[in-house]
Structures are given as C-alpha cells and as structure tokens.
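Q: What residues go here?
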C-alpha cells in the first residue's frame, strides 16, 4: 500500500493572495538522462461551428510598439497608464505557476509568459526590480469568469488553459504557446498502465476543466471527483480519497515531483494546446500578445523558459508551437 506523506509540500502552495514581484526563473541542474521527448503534436480538436480552426487567433498587425509608448485608444495604453498588468495565474501548479516557499514569489513557465507581455508594455525591469505585474491567484473554474468580471476583471489569464471552440464563445485566446497532453497519475504500486484500467476507481480532475471532460469520455466507468485546484486533487490523492489524478502532463509532472509515492502513466489520450486568455472586448491586445509570443519564440526567451521549468520532466523540444492565424474580430469588438 502507498504510504501517506505529510501534506506540507502540497498545502504550502495553496495561497490565494495577490502578489507582485520579479519572478526570475532559476536554471535547474541537468539530469544525467533527460526524459524522452513528447510525441509530435497533432491537432485533434474539431473545427468551431463557424468553420474556424480553434487554434486560429488574431494575427499581429506589425512590429510591436516601443515600450512605454502604447498606441492611444488601445487596451495596452490603458494598462500602461494604470502602471501594471493584472494577470490571473495559478499558485499551486509546480513549474507552471507556483509560490516558491523560500522567496514567497510565484514562478514558473506561465509566469514567464506574463512577464514577457508586461515587459513589452513597460520595458524590462532593471536587475533586482520587479516586473510591472499584479499576479492575481485564481482557481481553475475562475479562469473565464475572471476575464468577464464587469467590476474587477484581470487583463490576461495564464493558467494552463486549453484553447477550444466552446471557450472561444466566451473569451479570446492568444496563439498557442505550449502543447500539453492529458495523462494519469497513480500510486507507485498501482498495476494500471492506462486510464481504462481504473474502472470503478475515484479519479480527480479540476472542476470545469477539459481534463474532467476528457476523463469522462476516455473511461466512463471511473468515478470522477473534483477540486478547484491542481493541489486540491493532489491532497485528495494523498489522503486516499482519490485513487488517481487525471490532467495535463505539465501539471502531473509537478504533482509527481511533490509525491515520491506517485507515478505518471505513459498513456497520453488528448492534445491540450495552451493559450493566454484575454477578453473578447480587446482584440488589439490579443494581436499585441501574439506579437510578443512571436518575439520571445524567435529570440530564444521561450525556449530558455521551457528548458528551465519543463524540459527535465517532459523532455527536450526542438521548437515552440507554430502560431495559427486567420481569425477576424466580430463586428463591434
């Protein structure tokens, strides 16, 4: 039987306060044998009802404006005048967005994407100075509502959010910035090799996530349980209230790093293209963000971030995802 370990590693990440600061990634030591590279990405999503590719975003209109000189009348200018970018992020997804228990700062791959957008608006901070970002910690179910809040919305969401047609009906997405895939985490002594081996078992997935929907389709015979956060599922797993966790390989790699009595099955049964979430009201900001993503993919910043946070668990990549454009804002946007 699996031993239960103290929950300090998990619960230390469950923090809900907003924060600002400089979240510089720290290079992890290389392992002697790197993990196998993930299989080639294959787009498996169906087209939207209007015939559009769900991965198609708004193409950048030209070179990025100079930092601190955002065009008048744009949402980027509103952000510049406010003095900070407000981003909805996770604080409990190790390597993507999690609070460092020593420094107290939130750091990870998703946070690096947010910082790149902020730096394009305000300029890169001087050494030792923070990025001009307010990181607002949100749960998985709050990702879309936080962008649609009429009183106090966030400007952007960077919280391992899958691009799909249904969500395009509620928010806009940047071009794809990472391709994940769904896997399953089980106890180290489990005999299961795939999610279909878990008939009748309780399997946790975050509420209102594509992971939960995919799980139900892949094996309708499991007993799904939910939590509002990735760490919530890990806590249920460590307490014995869930026999497994199903979710993005990026998230499960972080879970396994916190629990030596867990392992991630090799079966990958979905493709999860990540996009940065933005309000449908600001297509010009989507175009700006896509320009930023193109820039950091071209200058090596994206690859450095991937190698820092994800390579050691998920394998080497030769290139970032290729953007897909062609979407046109609806009239009135």
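A:
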């Amino acid at each position: 039987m699996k031993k239960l370990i103290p929950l300090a590693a998990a619960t230390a990440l469950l923090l809900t306060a907003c924060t600002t600061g400089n979240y510089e990634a720290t290079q992890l030591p290389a392992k002697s044998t790197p993990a196998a590279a993930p299989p080639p990405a294959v787009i498996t999503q169906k087209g939207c009802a209007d015939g559009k590719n769900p991965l198609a975003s708004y193409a950048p209109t030209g070179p990025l404006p100079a930092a601190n000189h955002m065009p008048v009348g744009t949402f980027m200018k509103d952000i510049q005048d406010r003095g900070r970018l407000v981003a909805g992020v996770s604080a409990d997804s190790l390597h993507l967005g999690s609070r460092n228990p020593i420094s107290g700062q939130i750091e990870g791959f998703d946070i690096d994407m947010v910082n790149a957008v902020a730096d394009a608006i305000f300029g890169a901070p001087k050494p030792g100075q923070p990025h001009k970002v307010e990181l607002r910690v949100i749960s998985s179910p709050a990702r879309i509502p936080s962008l649609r809040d009429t009183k106090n919305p966030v400007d952007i969401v960077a919280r391992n959010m899958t691009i799909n047609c249904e969500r395009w009906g509620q928010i806009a997405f940047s071009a794809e910035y990472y391709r994940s895939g769904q896997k399953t985490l089980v106890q180290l002594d489990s005999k299961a090799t795939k999610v279909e081996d878990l008939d009748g078992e309780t399997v946790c997935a975050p509420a209102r996530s594509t992971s939960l929907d995919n799980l139900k389709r892949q094996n309708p015979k499991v007993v799904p349980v939910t939590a509002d956060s990735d760490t919530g599922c890990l806590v249920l797993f460590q307490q014995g209230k869930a026999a497994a966790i199903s979710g993005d390989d990026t998230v499960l790699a972080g879970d396994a790093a916190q629990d030596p009595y867990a392992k991630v099955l090799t079966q990958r049964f979905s493709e999860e293209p990540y996009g940065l979430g933005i309000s449908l009201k600001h297509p010009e900001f989507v175009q700006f963000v896509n320009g930023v993503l193109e820039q950091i993919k071209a200058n090596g910043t994206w690859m450095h971030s991937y190698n820092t946070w994800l390579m050691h668990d998920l394998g080497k990549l030769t290139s970032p995802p290729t953007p897909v454009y062609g979407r046109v804002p609806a009239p009135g946007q």
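A: Context that may help when evaluating the design: DSSP finds eleven helices and 18 strands in the chain. Confidence is low (pLDDT under 50) at residues 1-44.
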